[in-house]
Amino acid sequence: MRIWGKVLGFLFGFMLSKNVFGALIGMWLGHMFDRGRGSDFNGTVRGEDDDVSRQAAFFYSTFSVMGHVAKSKGQVTNHDIAFANAYMKKLGLNNELCQQAQDAFREGKATGFPLKERLKKFKKICGNRHDLLLMFLEIQIQVAFSDGELDKKEREVLHTIARFLGYSARQLDNLLEMIIASAAFNQQSGQSYQQFNGGNAPSSAGQLENAYKILGVNKNNTKADIKKAYRKLMSQHHPDKLIAKGLPPAMMEAAKEKTQDIQAAYDLISKHL
């Protein structure tokens, strides 16, 4: 097992950033260097099944498949590129990580990208970490819906991704409804979760309906059922739990944003129960 890239990356990361997070990112980049001397895929390492390799696989797979989803409708538009760049910026990626993400995105949108093969390898390295696979699928749905609509080709590629990750067509449709509702919910509120939680956000009937969809419930469910659904979603998307399972630390912001949406939806519903 190659370790010197990790060791040197950790030390240099700590010296440059003066904190453990920077050291971990350095170790991850060092791992990428080690991987470059003994790997068969830009994100999966022969013979390794550890947290660092899962993080690297998640990061690479996220942006390469993101590129493939963007290309699925024929060509990558300026909007697709702007969304990908905005997503990288939102995650706060440093220059080196941003370059890695851009390289992966370009590979994903290239003709002949082996989507099924990459998904198989990604699922294998993730093992039974279903919450990690769920987060990955949700990110790809957000990419496809970034322009406010889903065309036939985008829907087809999402079904392919879901199937290879172990999700049924019905489960994908449910996720689509939840994420579309989340986008509408945020647009209706017009403000952050922190503002909403302070009680200043409007609460229209449409917003309440989207809040129910975000939790995957409806107004006919009992208070206990709604609370159970809320707790399950919060557990599935808890940033610390996802990091422990292999979510790259650099992508923690995506998990935080998801939990904020879930919390905001539950708070609004609770006010009307």
Characteristic terms for this protein:
two-stranded antiparallel sheet, 73% helix, 273 residues, globular, mainly alpha
Task: Describe the model.
The protein has 273 residues and is an all-alpha fold. It has a domain at 1-37. Helices cover 73% and strands 2% of the residues. The chain has 14 helices and two strands; from the N terminus they run H-H-E-E-H-H-H-H-H-H-H-H-H-H-H-H. It has helices at residues 4-17, 20-36, 51-71, 78-91, 95-108, 115-126, 130-144, 152-165, 169-189, 193-197, 205-215, 223-236, 239-245, 252-272, and strands at residues 39-41, 44-45. The protein is globular. The termini are far apart.
Count of beta strands: 2
Largest sheet: 2 strands, antiparallel
Mean pLDDT: 81
**Alpha-carbon distance between the termini?**
56 Å
Q: Are there runs of 5+ residues with pLDDT below 50, and where?
A: 17-23, 36-49, 191-202
Count of helical stretches:
14
Q: SSE string, helix = H, strand = E? A: HHEEHHHHHHHHHHHH
Shape, per Cα inertia axes: globular
Structural class, by secondary structure, is: mainly alpha
Strand order of the largest sheet: 1-2
Strand content: under 5%
Radius of gyration in whole Å, from Cα?
19 Å
Assembly status: single chain
Helix content: over 70%
Can you give me a brief rundown of this structure?
The protein has 273 residues and is mostly helical. The protein has 14 helices and two strands.
